Each structure stands twice: as structure tokens, then as C-alpha cells.
Amino acid sequence: MLMHVIWTLKLSYFTLLHFIIHKGTSIELCWNVRVQPPAVILGMSSSITGSCIIERQEYCLNRMSNASEIIWKLDGEEIAKNQYNSLNGTSYVTIPNFNKTRGVLACYVVLHGSQQLVGQASIQAGYPPSKPTDLVCITNVSSLITMTCKWTPGNNTYLPTTYKLQRARLVSLLGTLESLNDCIAEAEKNYCTLKREFLILYQSVYTWVSATNALGSVQSDRKQLDPMDVVKLDAPIISEANSSQAGCIQVKQQERVSWLKQRCELRYKLTGRQEWHLAESSTAETFPAIELCGLHSGMKYLVQTRCIKKSGLGYWSEWSTEKNVTVLEKAPTGKLNTFWKETVNKLKEEKEIWLLWKPMEILEANGEIQKYLVYIPKKNDEDTETVLCSTANTNCTFFVHVSVQRVYIKAINSAGESPATEVLLCKISGRPLRNIQVSPKDDYTLLLTWQVPRFPVTYYIIEWFMLPNKMPREITWQLAMYNDTQALLQENIKPLTRYNISLYPLYKDGLGDPVSTKVYSRQGAPSKAPELKAKNMKKSQVELIWDNIPEDECNGFLKSYTVIWNDMKGNSISAVIDASENSYVVKNLDAYSQYYILITATTDAGSINGTVLTINTPYFGDGDLISLVLPCCLILFLVSVVITLMCYNCNTVKTHFWPTVPDPSNSSLRKWMPSQFHEEKKQMSEVLDPSIALLESNNDTKLSHAEVMEKSEDHSPKHCASSKHSFPESLPYGTSSITKKPRSYVNTDRTVEYATVTVDSYRVQTPPPPPYSRSNSLQPLLNDLPPSPKPYENMWFQIFSDQDTCFQKAHKTVRANDESAWKTFPLLWELQIEGNDDQDITHGISAYPGTRFSDSQPVAQNIFVSHSSN
């Protein structure tokens, strides 16, 4: 069974092999693509030739009989046909001026209408290798001895390059060399390490490096060296560092290579400093301990060590890790630099002293200062010193009497105290410095310059602080020597910050007056713009106010403010205002208009725009409103007064402005008329011719008087004379029985006397009985008109003109035939009155417009009419 399986596997193998050879042969196996040369020098315009050759012709010729053509491609791009060439079934292609560092040349066969890849080859271009230089070999003897050599390969060749470390030793005096084991460096590495078994210690050998690539080979210079002469020890380890006495330290380190003699070096520096100081080397006899003296007491140091073979051949080891050590302290030896300010209280006769001092120099402090003591020394052996303050800070405040002129200060550490420094608390006036100037060197440095004063100076004190000075006790200061004329200020200086700088001269007998100035290390535009506010707005102007920009937001010295205002038409006007101002009046504005106002703050380095303020000017100004409101107020006041008076005296005001019009139908005349009045009136109107009116009367006959008044307790007539006076029954013409002067005539709502009519005979004529007719006149009796009828209208006025002041005296006599004069009094024109003694008094001139009076007929008329208001 097993044999059967074996024979079956053999048969299957031969069948598969026959199929692969005869039927399944791949087309790639039939071709071989070669490139000559495989690499060229880059940039030398070198040409490359590629060939595509048929292999195994006995199997491949039949398969390639259907191939129509061969196509060449370089990096996927087809090569032009004119670069092809064919010979004996082999296709060739030539590529001139190959200028790439790498490329792929491929051969394709067109079979059954499609391209099939049959082979490809790589093409390379670069440079021959450069000569290796700087060959350095270092031997490590810590645990396993090895030697590592490094070199500089030179320029990049762009071709695979092999570096080989080669050695040879001299075996005869004739100069015969024996090759030793080579060390081939890894790709792209420029060093190679030889293990201990390939090294020959304590014997010199020739060592060099060779570099090889497709374009050539080159070797470095040969060096003759002993592996033990190029030893580099490992970095030592410091186990202990301490100080056993003031100014000295001792450093101990571990032994790492005990069989190799060596010497070591120590370097040190103060903690926080950058500069290292190298100490003397120690010998093998003092190894592993190294002692160093001459250091500053009380200071902290950092130390490091390194070692080399005692012979000095080889290389120094790397520096060890840093180690801290503190030198033992001793009492401070220096003095303090001080500065003080005072505030005098004259009422309490004391002064407040703010004393400042600089920390003591490191080399003088001899350790860490624990505190400072400010005191007044004792005056004699029995007294004790007066301690003013004891502090670890560099300033303190205390109170002393105004007579105290000196205090003292000293520094104290763990080993003792420093010599006392005298502080003279005196000020000297009248010795100012001159020509102080400050200029920025950079953003963090200021240069202060001044002239040397005429008086000798001990030293100068420079003080500066930021503005605004929110913390008065936070200042920075430094000293300058007596012969200095300039100083650099670098502490606490930053850009865009205003500083106040003061320079004090310190004389032998006291502190002089300072000279101060303000400065920026760098200016910029303000970080905040002022906010505009409108004040006192008028129709043609407005006052603008704003707050000053805080000093810490100015970022520079303000030069000016610029106010810009624009109207709705796009017109723009601006005004530049001094930086010290904080208000401005914008004038010549249009009334009832809208304006946009902007303010800009400017420094030497830039400007910033504020927010826009929108204002609307009023239509009226303050004067306009007053001129309008004041008359209105006056009118309202007068109206109020009139209304008030009318309310309190309504009747008086009514009769003054609207007089009462008598109503004849309600008068007293209406009441006393006889019953035949209406009938006679009717008869007279029928008989008499209105064009002729004759009044005949006997000259000796006098008509009787008709008194037309009603007297009653409730409605008594208002006379201009006294109310108790009564008229006589008959009043002869030209006489008067009234002795008391009557009142003035006043319109009233009560019954008043209107008229009394008397008619006398005119010469010998006897007047006819007159018809009576009531007056229908509506004419008002106004007090701005004459208060009574004229004399020719009422003859009664002539009789009582001297006694009654209500009526005016007649100035002339009117004829009865003067018709125009009668028409001026319509009541008399229509009135008819009948007497009591059967003598009719006829008066109806308006009814008889044609009636004429003879010159011999005198007529006397007096009319009293009692009336009442409607």
C-alpha cells in the first residue's frame, strides 16, 4: 500500500513538471532584461542601454511566434520608437542623458492585442564615494573592553555605499603588513565597534576606513594607534561632598576601574550662577578624595568631577552628576548701602523714617543673613542701645525724635554680625543736580545720564517706580558711584509703563534734593479711549466732557485729543485739543439736527478711537423757550386774575363790560300812563298830518310837571342826588331846590330814573294835545358814552346841572325845528307824555317828522324814566 502511494506521488510530480515545461511556462521566464551600465554618474550626461533577450528558446519560440512587437517603458512612460533596435531576436533601447538618481526600465510584449510585462531592471545614478575623514577611535575599559571608531563619510553619493574599518599590523622590519579582522559598518552608519577578541592591547596597529559603491572605491588616511592609548573612562560618581572648615570643601567619589591609574579634575560654581570654575587636579595618591579651599564661607556650591589615565593619554571622561555642598559660615565682613525717606510730624516733634538697604554682597555676607538690626547706640557704658527695628527684610519703618540725626544698621548670620553701618538722617537743600536725561535702550532697559555737580558727592541714589503709584512702598532703587555720570536701569522695567525716576545726590553731610522725570521704555497707543458725554446742549452748540485716561492705560505720553463730528449729510469737521483738557464746546451746529461725534486719544506711538456719541440738537434754544413761555405765562396769569375777579365781583364786571340795556316796556313810565293813552295815540295818528306839527302855547302859561317815578322800599329809583331827597312838585324854569350834590351816574340792574319831560308854552301858541307813544329804542346806555342827554334833548339838565353831577351842562341851545338833533335821541322821538292838570304834553317828534317849532315857542323838556333790567 505504501509503495502504491509513493508511485502515485511520483507520477503526479512528473505530470505537473511536464505541464509546467511544455504548457504552463510563464512568459516572464522566457525573457531576461539587462542594463549596461547599471549605474552612471549623476549630471555627466551618461547614456544607458537596455536589452531584452529570449531565454529557453526551445520552449519560448513557439509562444512568442504570436508576439507582434516589443515596447520599452521608463518609470511607466513609453520610450520613443526611434530609440529601439533589434538584432538576432534581441531588442535594445538606448536612453541618453539619464538625469535621475533612480529609475526602472521595463520590457513589454504585445500578445493577443495586450501588453504583457516580460522583464525589468533598475537604473541608478549618483556619485563616487568621498574620502572618509576624522577617524577617531575610543577604547572603553569599564566592563567589557571594546574599541569604537567613528569617521566622517563625506558627501552623499545617492548610491548604496559600503564602509569598512580595516586594520593591519607590521610583522617585519621590511614593512610587511598583516591584515587583521575588518569591521563592516551597518548601512547608513558611520561607526563600527570591535570587540575585545579582535583587539590587540598595548600594541600599535594601522587603522583606516574604505568606502565602496558602484562607481568606485576610496580609502581614508591610515592611523597608527594602540587601543590602550585611546581609553576613555566612564563618568565618575561623587559619593560625598562636605565642608570641614570655613572656606574649604572635600569631595569623595567611587572607584570604578581600580587596575588603571588615573587622575581627576573638580569644577564648582555658586548656586544660581552660570560660570564654572576649574580646580587643580588631584593625583592618584589622593584619589578618590579631592579637597578644595578658598571658597566663600556660608555659600552654597555645585561640584562635578571627571577623570583620565594618569599618563594623560586618551580622553577625559564625562563630568559626573552635580553635587550640592555648603561652605561653613563666618561673620559678615561688608557694610550695607542704605536709602531713607522721612515724614516729619511737627506737633509730636517726631519723624517717621522709612529705611531701605541693599542685601549684602555674597562675598561679604559669608553666609545666609538671618536678620538686620537698626539701632541707636548707647551714649555711655551704663546705657543700652535702642533697637529701632529687627527684621529679615531689606526695609523697615520706625519713629524717632526730630533731634535724632544718626542711626546704625548691621547684618547678622549664624557666625556673627557685620560691622555697623552709619545712616545720616539729614537733608541738604540748594544743591540740585542738572541736566538729568533718560532714554530707552530697549524694552527692558533705561539709560539715565546726568552732569557731575559742583559739590563733592559720596555716591548717587537712583529711585524709580511705576505710575500710578498704587503701592507707595513698592519702589526700586540702586546706587551709582561718585564719579559716574550714567547708569543703566534694568530691574522691574517693562514696556508700555510710565515710570517716575528720581536721582538723589548723597553728600558727606546729608542727602540732597532729588531731580525727577517721567519716561517710558516703549510707548504704544492707549489701551482705552475716553468716553464722551454731552453737557449743556443748545440748538447751535454742545459742550462735550470726558474723563482723563488712567495713567496705567495711556501706554505713552498723551499728545492730544481729536474730536470729530459728522452730520447726516456726511460733512465732517475735526478739532485737535490739548491733552490737559477734558472738555470742548462744539459750535456752529444746525438746530434740530443729528450729529455723530467721535473722540481719538493720541500718543507718540499711535492713537485709539472711542465710541461714537450720537446727539440731536433741539429746535429751540434756552432764550427761545423763555421768549415763548414767558408771554404765555403772563397771558395765563392775566386770564386767571380776570376770571378770579369775575368770580368775586361778577355783577360789577358784567355791568362794566356788558352794560344793562333799559327795556321801556318794563319801565315805570309804562305803569303811570293814563288809560286813554292808547286811544289818543290811535286818534292822533289818524288826525294829525305827520308832515305838520304845531305846538301852540300861551307864553304866560307854564305846563305842569310830570314826575314819573315810583317809589317803593324794594325798588326805589337811583338818583344821582341823595336817596332821601325828593324833587318838588313843580320846578320853575331856571330854578332849583336841590342843595345836596347827587351821586355819579352808574348803570345798575335796579330801577333808575330815565327822564322827566316838561313842556312850556312857546310864546302865544297853544300846543295840541300830544299823543303818547312808548319808545322802542334798543340803544344801550354805556358809561363810555355821555352819561345823560345833551341840553337840547332834555331841558331838565339845565335846571339841575349845578346840583346833579351825573349830567353834563349844556353848551348850546337847540331849536325845536332842528330835526337832526332830535333824531339823535330816539327815545324822545317816540315818547308821548300827558300831564296831570289837563294839559297834555305832546312829544312825538319821530312820529311827526314834519312838525316845526316857532322861535317864540320855548320848549323845556326833562325826562325821567324808571327802568329795570331784563
Describe the structure.
12% of the residues lie in helices and 34% in strands. The longest helix has 27 residues, at 622-648. Strands 12, 13, 14, 16, 17 and 18 form a six-stranded antiparallel sheet that branches. Strands 34, 37, 38, 40, 41 and 42 form a six-stranded mixed sheet that branches. Strands 2-9-8-4-5 form a five-stranded mixed sheet, with no helix packed on it. With 870 residues, the protein is mainly beta.
Summary keywords:
870 residues; mainly beta; 52 strands
Would you spell out the secondary-structure blueprint of this structure?
Elements: H1 2-23, E1 31-36, E2 39-41, E3 48-54, H2 57-64, E4 69-74, E5 77-78, E6 84-87, E7 90-95, E8 102-111, E9 114-126, E10 133-140, E11 146-152, E12 162-170, E13 177-179, E14 183-184, E15 191-194, E16 205-213, E17 216-219, E18 223-225, E19 238-245, E20 248-253, E21 262-270, E22 277-278, E23 289-293, E24 300-309, E25 323-326, E26 338-345, E27 350-357, H3 362-365, E28 371-376, E29 386-391, E30 395-401, E31 406-413, E32 416-417, E33 421-424, E34 427-428, E35 437-442, E36 445-449, E37 459-467, E38 476-481, E39 486-489, E40 498-507, E41 510-512, E42 515-520, E43 533-535, E44 542-545, H4 551-554, E45 558-567, E46 572-578, E47 583-586, E48 594-603, E49 606-609, E50 613-616, H5 622-648, H6 650-657, H7 669-672, H8 677-687, H9 796-800, H10 819-823, H11 826-830, E51 833-834, E52 840-841
Parallel strand pairs: 2-9, 34-41
Antiparallel strand pairs: 1-3, 3-7, 4-5, 4-8, 6-7, 8-9, 10-11, 11-15, 12-13, 12-14, 12-16, 16-17, 16-18, 19-20, 20-23, 21-22, 21-24, 24-25, 26-27, 27-30, 28-29, 28-31, 31-32, 31-33, 35-36, 36-39, 37-38, 37-40, 40-41, 40-42, 43-44, 44-47, 45-46, 45-48, 48-49, 48-50, 51-52
Helix pairs in contact: 5-6
